[in-house]
Design brief:
- It contains five helices and three strands.
- The chain is mainly alpha-helical.
- It has a three-stranded antiparallel sheet.
- Strand 2 and strand 3 form a beta hairpin.
- The protein starts with a helix and ends in a 7-residue tail after the last helix.
- The model has no long low-confidence stretch (mean pLDDT 83).
- It comes from Bacteroides fluxus YIT 12057.
- Pfam families: DUF3853 (PF12964).
């Protein structure tokens, strides 16, 4: 059986043997390619004060205080009224302890 002939043939005209052969050939081709996780490379963003509140699980006034405190400033990009926050970086920055009581 020739792969090119089977690929050009409609499925409804194939015999069971031809269909299984084509299916096995397709599965062998997918096993040779390593799967790369795309989720690790994608950055996650939240938008606005409401997004910060959802990210930290707090109220909107508390999210506003977190933003104004300056702890997560490196994770925030603000253009006019639009606020974009890199979620992973903000969580990392908020988790770090800096200073403290004197």
């Amino acid at each position: 059986m020739e792969i090119r002939d089977l690929l050009s043939k409609p499925v409804w005209q194939m015999t069971g043997e031809e269909f299984i052969f084509l299916n096995r050939h397709a599965l062998q081709g997918s096993e040779t390619k390593p799967a790369q996780p795309a989720a690790d490379k994608d950055k996650k963003y939240v938008y606005g004060i409401g997004g910060i509140a959802r990210l930290f699980g707090c109220s909107i006034p508390t999210a506003n205080r977190i933003k104004k405190s300056g702890r997560i400033d490196r994770a925030i990009t603000q253009i006019g009224r639009k606020i974009i926050v890199d979620a992973d970086m903000a969580l990392e920055l908020a988790g770090r302890k800096s200073g403290g009581r004197r």
